[in-house]
Amino acid sequence: MSDRRIDYYLSMLLDEDRYEFYRSVADFADKEIGPKLLGWERAGGYVPDELIAQLGEMGIFGLPIPEQYGGQGGGLTELVLAGLALGYQSHSIAITPGAAVSLGANPILKNGTEAQKKEHLPDLAAGRRMVAFGLSEPGRGSDAANPQVVAEKNGDGWTLRGEKCWATNAKWASHVVVHALTDPDGRNGHRSTCFIVPMDQPNVHYSEMSGKTVWQMSSTGSVVLDQVQVTPDQILGELNEGFKVMVTTLNGGRLFIAGLALASLAFALDRVRTYVQEREQFGGPIARFQRVQDVVLEMDLVLDRNLNWLMTLLDRYDRGVLDREQPAKVKIDSSRAASHLLIEAMEICGGVAGLDEFGLSRHHNDLFVTRVGEGSNRALMTQVARSLLPDCAGILQ
Prior knowledge:
Blueprint: H1 5-13, H2 16-32, H3 34-43, H4 49-57, H5 76-87, H6 91-111, H7 114-126, E1 130-134, E2 150-154, E3 157-168, E4 173-181, E5 192-198, E6 204-208, E7 220-230, E8 235-236, H8 242-278, E9 280-281, E10 284-285, H9 290-318, H10 325-349, H11 360-372, H12 377-388
Parallel strand pairs: 1-4
Antiparallel strand pairs: 2-3, 3-7, 4-5, 5-8, 6-7, 9-10
């Protein structure tokens, strides 16, 4: 049995096959990522191509994709378990297959035509290429039902114009799913359409977003669509039902993001509980102080509670019976609690916590993304509040 606290809890929550799968990915991360991670970060650049290829060979990119399309035939549970194992070391590395599946392959799997599935899923499952998720825009974030990228009717097709940003994995993407306004006068939530657009299609321009201080090894790109011509067979889902595609996609993504927050918390818990038993001040280890014990215990309480919660929701998601509010709630709570406790943990450890080699500052920075990614916590709180206050749902701000 591993001495990691997260492994102790997962060993009780998972059946033998799933736990062994999780441990196999964690063992790989310990051997192939942990010892090299600091060097990669200090050198700059992105997740190494050879590591992406290794993850592809392991089948990580195809975990929830059916075997008939070249995948492993699992569910979102397996993907989140891989995210926990990889995210313990690095969010940047974990989100590369995480976003490639939950935001890239998953919308095609759930909304694509049979022809689209056969065209895209086998290569996506093998990690040979990725699809980016084009939702956020420079002037539009939480108001996702009203994209500023527009698709104007042009004969049998449409002309796309506008810009998408914060697109994870854009550097490696062969295609981008573009959420565009197609019916400005339609009902809210029924005025947009998703299109599958090749990144090498004429008038599609990609650039990496610079100056990012979080998920530093992950690719985050901007995609400009300058009068891009698309045809009906590039529609993903139904015409004017693009918001539905986006919403159903984000439910799974929020569970993955909650897993990343708990992976950071798990790393911090192990790092801190080891450190406080070794660090001596005032005549003994600082673990003997009640204030130190309180923080370590609270970290453990949140990890125990939220892992149980997350695994329950993953089971419901894979059985197709999970409502929309639950992924939002577990993401909100996990990301906020982990962020708060990371700061508490860093205070306990003192100045050493600010060194990159200690690892806590990496997770502290990356946890910010879990609070705003897959829907800002502030916006999601309003969404959940509407379900709690149905008589006032129409006026809640």
